[in-house]
Amino acid sequence: PDPPWTAVPDVPRNVTFVDTADAVCTPDRCPAVIGNVLVYLDDNHLTATYAATMAPLIEDQVHAALS
Predict the structure, then answer these.
(1) Closest CA to 25 of 50, 5, 8, 59
(2) Are the CB atoms for 20 and 30 separated by under 8 Å?
(3) Which terminus of the chain is more exposed, N or C, with fewer CB under 10 A?
(4) Do the Cβ atoms of 18 and 62 come closer than 8 Å?
């Protein structure tokens, strides 16, 4: 329920985290394929193709972090 970065001490003020959990996992599981696109390259990296499909979902968060 809490993102892992909430436990990181002394995060610099210029660091912003973007939570992508909702785009990768459901409340019950993290499927290997979403919308006919392979999600994981290995046990902890997304495929470039899936990451590209996430762009519209996180675009506003990234722009806000860069402002």
Answers:
(1) 50
(2) no
(3) N
(4) yes
CA gap 18, 54 in Å, rounded: 12
What distance in Å separates the CA atoms of residue 50 and residue 25, rounded to the nearest whole number? Answer: 13
| Tokens found for residue 56 | 């519209």
Length of the chain: 67
Mean pLDDT by 10 residues, the chain (67 residues): 86 89 91 96 94 93 88
Cα–Cα distance measured from residue 10 to residue 63, given in angstroms and rounded to the nearest whole number: 23
The reported pTM is: 0.73
- Separation CA 54–CA 48 (nearest Å): 10
Q: Is 19 exposed, middle or buried (0-12, 13-18, 19+ CB in 10 A)?
A: exposed
Cα 66 from Cα 5, distance rounded (Å):
19
